[in-house]
Amino acid sequence: MKLLRVDMHQLQTRWEPVPAAYERLGGRALIAQLLLEEVPPTCDALGPYNKLIFAPGLLGGVNVTTCGRLSVGGKSPLTRGAKEANAGGTAGDMLGKLDIKAVVVEGQAAKGNWYILHIHDESTELVPAGDVRGLGTYASSDRLQEKYGAESTVISIGQGGEWMMGGAGICVTGEGGQRSNHAARGGLGALMGSKGLKAVVIDKPEGKTASLANAELLRTAARAFAQKLINDPKLGKSGTQHLYGTASIVAVVNEMGAFPTRNFREGSFEGAEKLRGEHLREVTLGRGGEVGTRCMPGCVIACRNVYVDESKTPIVGTLQYETIALMGSNLGLGNLDEIAQLNRMCNDFGLDTIETGAALGVAIEAGLAKFGDFESVRALLAQVGEGTVLGRLIGNGAAATGRVLGVRRVPAALGQAMPGYDPRSLKGNGVTYATSPQGADHTAGNAFGARKEVNPLVVPGQKELSLRLQIIAAMLDSTGLCLFARPPIIAEPQLMVDMINGRFGWGWTVDDYNRFNRQVLRTELEFNRRAGLTSADYRIPEYMHAEALPPHNVTFDVPDSDLDAVFEKL
Fold it and tell me: Are 78 and 43 in contact (CB under 8 A)?
């Protein structure tokens, strides 16, 4: 395998052998180690010394279901620490098939100059961005695929990334004209913009396959893994994730009182019935849209949808739970058509719907729009794409919006907006938000799936649960697997060990695998420590300790001593 180094200052690319320290790492694990070894922890996240890293997981490019996610990382302009976000689409699979361990983007182009990185087998080049500069992600993807081929993969930023907004993400294309797979969290689109890199285009690797140390071992484990996902009552062909997508959990989160409503003032929304996955499916199919599609090649879960308007014109694909929560109930909106329009705007501008939805909620609280008034919210979001001063403020995320507008009630931790689970009613997620080196990110250790294991409303057991889930999340992000693929791996870790050994022949044991997963977190925490982050930074906002959340009237009452002790047994 090899590394591709991209020097944006010199406008040069070069291939390198993989250093020994990186050989047995992938995805999030590789990003963490590379940051620790190569990036000054106290550097300006949008300055020349930070690095933008694209890395497939350890199983990228091989025939393992759900393993094609692409990890993107660097020092986050929001959290000021190590950040990894990942996306579906075809990029992770293509880089894996090309035997590319990572693409490391270094330095910065001259101000005002924008480039496209084109990867074609062993050939790479940086070319001027030309007529895609200033375009949103939809038009950028269309034009670049017209030029380089419909089967090429395009990784791009929109206006949010070009203007280096803290809420900017990175868009990855996928199968069948997909335009909306996003590595959304942590402001990594702003980091890409700071490099002067508008897009990466990867030509489809014809006839390329990843080399396997033991093909039979990998095939046997991969088949067993896929079958367990198919048989899972939540994930298989008749499961809720496949039938209703991630919106399948709307009703349950609303019932448990953790559904963010009107800037996290309430935990349940009176209009939740029309936001449920069942209603989403009914509307989508009734209009001729699609449900049960996949975001990555070979995924057997297929939880994606294509939401269309009444004229059967696609609005967005896919409309997911987090967007429904942050751009819907959090803004007082209960109409899927309206939420889908806001979703499309965010996708096109290249913005994280979680960060932007939270920022809009804060702006509404400051009196700049009205909860439940779609037109006022839409007009506010449109200013982001126009690049107005107010638009750039909102595009920089919830924490920045709150500071400038003088709003104290900002649902963020470590500078990053909270996803669609209020930590007062789902305390395990609160512990993850407050302690994860990734900041407030449900994918770093989501306790929702373990709510029957540990009562989400009480303190006992939450720190232990969060640690276990954070370790599992590190494993998924480092191997390239989807978050929803965790049940079989938790139940039978030998499956993962066999797949990794089948790919690389390392002779790993389950103990080796467990040490690997824990080391990811240790490395990230060490980078953050060197960056100057302390226990005082890893906290839930003060108002959530004092302000009771309806309907259960609970506060976030996990003591600081518990938060500080989460990683004692790491």
Answer: no
- Give the model's pLDDT for residue 426: 98
Q: How far apart, in whole angstroms, are the C-alpha atoms of residue 93 and residue 293?
A: 18
d(CA 81, CA 565): 20
Q: What is the CATH number for 158?
A: 3.60.9.10
CB 407 within 8 A of CB 401: yes
- Token pair 């380089």 in the structure block, residue: 148
State the Cα–Cα distance between residues 551 and 554, nearest whole angstrom: 8
Q: What is the pLDDT of residue 180?
A: 85
Q: What pTM was computed for the model? A: 0.97
Query: Is 83 domain-assigned?
Result: yes
DSSP strand pairing (170-172 vs 82-87): unpaired
- Please write down the long-range contacts of 41-44, taking CB distance under 8 Å and 24 or more positions apart: 41/75, 41/527, 41/528, 41/530, 41/531, 41/532, 42/530, 42/531, 42/532, 43/75
| Structural domain containing residue 64 | 2-202
Q: Tokens 């290249």 correspond to what residue? A: 350
Task: Give residue 311's pLDDT.
Answer: 96
Largest CA distance in the chain: 62
What is each CA distance from 284 to 212, 289, 544, in whole angstroms? 41, 5, 37
Q: Per the domain annotation, does 406 fall within a domain?
A: no
In this structure, the number of other CB atoms found within 10 A of the CB of residue 36 comes to 17
Beta strands in 458-570 (DSSP E): none
Is residue 558 within 8 A of residue 462, CB to CB? The reply is: yes
Among 460, 477, 462, which Cα is nearest to 521's? 477
The residue with tokens 């004092």 is: 546
Domain count, the chain: 1
| Residue-level pLDDT at 518 | 98
Would you call 206 helix, strand, or coil by DSSP? coil
pLDDT tens-digit series, residues 220-266: 999 999 999 999 988 888 889 999 999 999 999 999 999 999 999 99
Does residue 62 fall inside a structural domain? yes
In the chain, the amino acid numbered 510 is V
DSSP symbols for 349-388 = HTB-HHHHHHHHHHHHHTTSS-TT-HHHHHHHHHHHHHT-
DSSP-H helix ranges across 387-461:
389-395, 398-405, 427-435
Do 19 and 43 touch, CB atoms closer than 8 A? no
Dihedral, CA of residue 309, residue 312, residue 315 and residue 319, to nearest 10:
80
* Other residues' Cβ atoms within 10 Å of the Cβ of residue 313: 10
A 10 A CB-CB count for 44 gives 12
d(CA 365, CA 454): 33
The full DSSP string for 285-345 is HHTT-EEEE-SSTT-SS--EEEEE-TTS-EEES---HHHHHHTTGGGT---HHHHHHHHHH
Which residues lie across from 127 on neighbouring strands? 116
Distance CA 366, CA 385 (A): 21
CA-derived radius of gyration, the chain: 22
Residue 134, pLDDT score: 96
Place of tokens 């979703």: 343
Domain assignment present for 120? yes
Pick out the chain residues at pLDDT < 50: none
507 and 501 in contact (C-beta within 8 Å)? yes
